[in-house]
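Hey, I'm writing a tutorial for new members on how sequence and structure tokens pair up, and I'd like a real worked example in the thread rather than a made-up one. If someone can provide the structure for the chain below, I'll link this post from the tutorial.
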Amino acid sequence: MADLILYTNPMSRGRIARWMLEEAGVDYDAVLLDYASTMKEQPFLSVNPMAKVPAIIHGGKTVTECAAICAYLAEAFPGAGLAPREDERADYYRWLFFAAGPVEAAITNRSLGVAPTDQQQRMAGYGTYDRMVDVLEQAVAAHEYIAGDRFTAADVYVGSQVIWGAQFGSLPKRDAFDAYIARLTAREAYERAAALDDAAMAAMAAT
């Protein structure tokens, strides 16, 4: 096995980790898990007791949660140039964790039919879904990439949220989203990762 292992399912957020690994340009082995069986069984539960993918093991250490995986890989492989520069650091961390927190929560709650009342909005980190969307739109429109004029690991995570939001209708159509998506999906690493996951999906469906 390689020194870096990705545990994933091609129909999951594991696609985010796969894209990040392709951007980092590192060697890794992928272990494909099935939702109904191997994801809920040993040995994977010893990797992530939450029974969720993705997870990576690098040098014997485990990292879970997509935003953490993106940030970790950017720092672990600095030669890829995906970690933030000094002038990018504030926006990099702000929007990386905005996407992992308010964006993720607002989209999930909306898909579950949960709409916080005016009183509950004080408790919800995203306030309202509409406010989250407007702020996300402003963020991706402010620069060519989320932290400035250069692609970073934060774009892998934020961009995945926007790409999936457009694909599945969990985000409304906005010109700023479309332009951001076009820049990201034209990247060679994105195309490689998507091709690998699409092939894995076809292989799993055939078994």
